[in-house]
């Protein structure tokens, strides 16, 4: 069985050249389930299919279900229990049983009466599913980070451009007032010349699905976050963790293009992000949020980027059940003598995004907003002319843009640039060396125009990853 392929040989200048292309309008074919009478006519609604019902899928779908000009008509998941849960939620909302269930995302994408899709799948599938959606002329709401590797991100951006698709990334902080206001303060020059940017992200591991606790309790161990990062093959703990996949999960397909590994319940649903085989740890899980906001304030959504990257971090054994970096610090050099620090697990870097300039500073996080001048909280000075894209509902912004064919607040190019610093930081770490229990990353020089690592073949190999046959993304 041959899986979908897409061309990924694309650089940043080509991305930008595509920005002015006209976008084709959706067909707006009526869904089979018409819903309530208070909704717009079927011809005015966007029909939507949802792919993935794990951590982000349910919340995203609930938001779409609350929009009158959106009709959710199909759901797809590799876990039969998850799929049934999706059907129950969607059909209960519309008072019918019209939502169609799919095991294979390609069958859902092939439906011509579906205008758009919501994708909430593990990182290892981001590029495959997104490119397939774009090739089938679906507008796409996709989760962050944009993809598992920079090469895959390039493939997504190219597919979206070539097929003239509307893309919205799940970087929903851009649709929140405090984040927009903080970025506007910076963009209007109120803090003077920017000298430093701090991006604070989470550290460690979290047992989101609760699948690690039963194993830890069975073996009388401590918290899963500490325990599972130490369990390696050849130990009794590993043997106790490995089991046959449950019958409701198509595990062979779930692993997808990644290396086949034994089934361990503690690293699939929700907790897949703690295994580099399919996820990217806290760094890549969060880079599309706070670094995205940092770039918004720097006016670097579609231009520029770091030129030098150097990192250090702490890792579990590479073959542990949970093996992603637990503590990290990345130093990046940006144009105009700006230094960015991305850190997780370091007390001197506050969670969120902070810009520091010659005349002041501003910091923003979920539930927090602070600045050197508190007058900015109330009203920006009259001479501030920069007003950023305003969206008050991330999902509604996507549906509105799918109808108008105008760009969303977080298009694919933006998500691509927001995630690149995280990918390069991880590459620095993975290509580095172990010293006294820490991994010291190698210094990477990056050409943001060509999107290439300069004079370092060893680091360059991490820009992409080999696919397990028969999966391929050309």
Which consecutive residue ranges, at least 5 long each, have pLDDT under 50? 1-36
* Number of H- or I-type helical stretches: 15
Report the β-strand fraction as a percent range: 15-25%
> How much helicity do the residues have?
25-40%
CATH class of the domain at 12-174: Alpha Beta
CATH topological fold name of the domain at 12-174: Rossmann fold
For this structure, what is the CATH homologous superfamily of the domain at 12-174? Answer: NAD(P)-binding Rossmann-like Domain
Q: Give me the Rg, rounded.
A: 22 Å
**Quaternary:** single chain
Give the N-to-C terminal Cα separation: 15 Å
Mean pLDDT: 91
Alpha-beta content class: alpha/beta
CATH architectural group of the domain at 12-174? 3-Layer(aba) Sandwich
């Amino acid at each position: 069985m041959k899986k979908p392929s897409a061309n990924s040989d694309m650089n940043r200048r080509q991305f930008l050249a595509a920005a002015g292309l006209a976008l084709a309008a959706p067909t707006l074919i009526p869904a089979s389930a018409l819903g309530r009478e208070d909704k717009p006519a079927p011809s005015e609604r966007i029909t939507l299919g949802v792919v993935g019902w794990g951590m982000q899928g349910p919340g995203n779908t609930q938001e779409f279900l609350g929009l009158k000009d959106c009709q959710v008509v199909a759901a797809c998941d590799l876990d039969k229990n998850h799929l049934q849960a999706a059907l129950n939620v969607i059909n209960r909302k519309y008072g019918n049983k019209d939502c169609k269930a799919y095991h294979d995302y390609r069958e859902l994408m092939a439906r011509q009466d579906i205008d758009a899709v919501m994708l909430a799948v593990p990182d290892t599938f981001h590029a495959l599913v997104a490119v397939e959606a774009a090739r089938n002329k679906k507008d796409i709401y996709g989760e962050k980070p944009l993809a598992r590797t920079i090469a895959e991100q390039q493939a997504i951006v190219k597919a979206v451009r070539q097929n003239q698709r509307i893309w919205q990334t799940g970087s929903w902080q851009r649709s929140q007032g405090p984040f927009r206001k903080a970025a506007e303060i910076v963009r209007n020059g109120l803090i003077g010349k920017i000298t430093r940017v701090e991006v604070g992200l989470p550290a460690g591991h979290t047992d989101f699905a609760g699948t690690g606790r039963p194993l830890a309790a069975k073996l009388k161990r401590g918290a899963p976050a500490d325990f599972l990062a130490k369990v390696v093959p050849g130990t009794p703990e590993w043997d106790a963790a490995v089991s046959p996949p449950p019958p409701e999960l198509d595990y062979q397909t779930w692993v997808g293009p990644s290396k086949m590994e034994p089934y361990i319940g503690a690293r699939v649903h929700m907790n897949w992000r703690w295994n580099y085989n399919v996820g990217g740890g806290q760094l890549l899980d969060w880079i599309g949020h706070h670094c995205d906001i940092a770039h918004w304030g720097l006016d670097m959504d579609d231009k520029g980027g770091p030129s030098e990257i150097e990192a250090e971090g702490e890792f579990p054994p590479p073959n542990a059940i949970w093996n992603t970096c637990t503590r990290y610090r990345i130093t990046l050099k940006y144009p105009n003598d700006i230094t960015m620090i991305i850190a997780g697990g370091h007390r001197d870097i506050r969670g969120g995004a902070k810009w520091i300039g010659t005349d002041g500073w501003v910091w923003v996080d979920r539930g927090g907003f602070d600045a050197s001048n508190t007058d900015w909280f109330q009203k920006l000075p009259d001479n501030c002319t920069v007003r950023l894209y305003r969206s008050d509902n991330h999902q509604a912004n996507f549906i509105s843009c799918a109808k108008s064919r105008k760009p969303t607040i977080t298009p694919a190019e933006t998500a691509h640039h927001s995630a690149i610093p995280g990918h390069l930081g991880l590459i620095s770490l993975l290509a580095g060396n172990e010293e006294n229990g820490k991994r010291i990353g190698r210094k990477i020089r990056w050409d943001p125009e060509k999107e290439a690592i300069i004079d370092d073949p060893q680091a360059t190999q991490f820009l992409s990853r080999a696919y397990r046959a028969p999966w391929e993304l050309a």
